[in-house]
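Researcher: Next entry: RRM domain-containing protein (Vigna angularis var. angularis).
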Amino acid sequence: MAVPATVAATQASLYVGDLHPEVTDTQLFQAFREFESLSSVRVCRDSMTRTSLRYGYVNFMSQQDAIRAIKVKNNSYLFGKVMRVMWSHRDPNARKSGRGNVFVKNLADSIDNAVLHDLFQKYGNVLSSKVVVYDDGKSKGYGFVQFESEESANSAIENLNGSTVRDKQIYVGKFVRKGDRIVPGNDSKYTNLYIKNLDSDITEALLQEKFSTFGKIISLAIAKDDNGLSKGFAFVNYDRPDDARKAMEAMNGSQFGSKNLYVSRAQKKAEREQILHNQFEEKRKEQILKSKGSNLYVKNIDDAVSEKELRDLFSSCGRITSVKVMRSEKGISKGFGFVCFSNPEEANKAVSTFYGCMFHGKPLYIAFAQRKEDRKTQLKLHYAPQQARLNGSSAAVIPGGFSSYFYPNVTSHMLQSGLLYQPLGLGPGWRTNDFTLPTRSFQQSQVPIVPSTNRNHRLNRGRMNGHTNSVGKAHSGVYIPQLQHYYQAMDSREYLTA
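Model: Predicted structure:
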């Protein structure tokens, strides 16, 4: 086997893919140790979980040993899984370009990597061949072949597409990455048909005979379960779009066996999901427009209330089209639901009649139902002015130390008595909480300092403001009625040494 032109003359590194997840570096080394110039091996792992990525690299000192390793080890078994061994391509552009890559489908179950390699190698140098399988090793019916050159890939497509391999007509075409695949529209040309409502005894031979009258068929397959029994649907791929369209128009709804066939254009899963999503959205919008102003949101419903009771209550206001009490996964009522009337006038009557009325011991809250997005927008507009005022307020945090808010006449009396009083709400690390200083000055005679004699009162205020001493009791202090504030006593010696 010649060294591919894409591999440098000094390179002797091989890529080993489809490894068993439990294969370690040591076990991979043991698998290739028969080659004397083996220099190193590595199983690639996830950087976070350290789990195997199921591929690795084997490096040789000799190019000849690397070539021989590909011949001997490619498609061999390690831990019960078939390894793919090929030249390592470090250039990501070469790997991701899709150059020389061929997609093959409708393969027989007996075709594995080695058989696929032998089937395509006559058209050029095959770098890699892979049949996609399930976890149990069973073939999914399609695979990929990587050629060294684009010319070899084109030659294989031209000669093998539509050919019969092991009693199945295979499809061979250029590989297209998923991101580059174009989802066809309703007016696009297509060749692949989806057929369902097949009798269990319909064989691929009978289907081929029936549908081949409309044109050349490239591939045909009936879906089967694990026991080999028909699932009742199949795919037929024509060579020309016009033939596929004629077959669909002629066979859709026609009787074949004991059932009427359903024939349509085969769709990819992503396309089918997109179509179903669009249909759902259209129906939902129609329903919203139809029930606009007629659908009511009912809250504060007792858990024991059923949909029938809710319907009976509101039926006096008009014709009800639907009633729904929302429930959890366990069937327990969430306390709200919806009642939809035939027209807005009846809904308005229900709101004015039953809003706030007692039902099963609870007052009902009733409003017109809104979409979640509309309700969020409405609430955002409603609370925007308040949020703006909150964001604009600048209540500064007073740093550690003492508050800058002092009352001259009060503090002079405190200093004379050897005490300094500090507002509890303005201590170190506390916000001012929009506390506004009085504009007029207080005289001592107008502001008598009244010692608080009520121990419970002092204790409760101390707990409320979070000031307790080391044994959990509130600090003693004085209460000034005119200021409606409680002041904490502090020894002046503590103030001088602070």
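Model: Note for the record: The chain has four domains: 13-143, 192-266, 293-368, 408-497.
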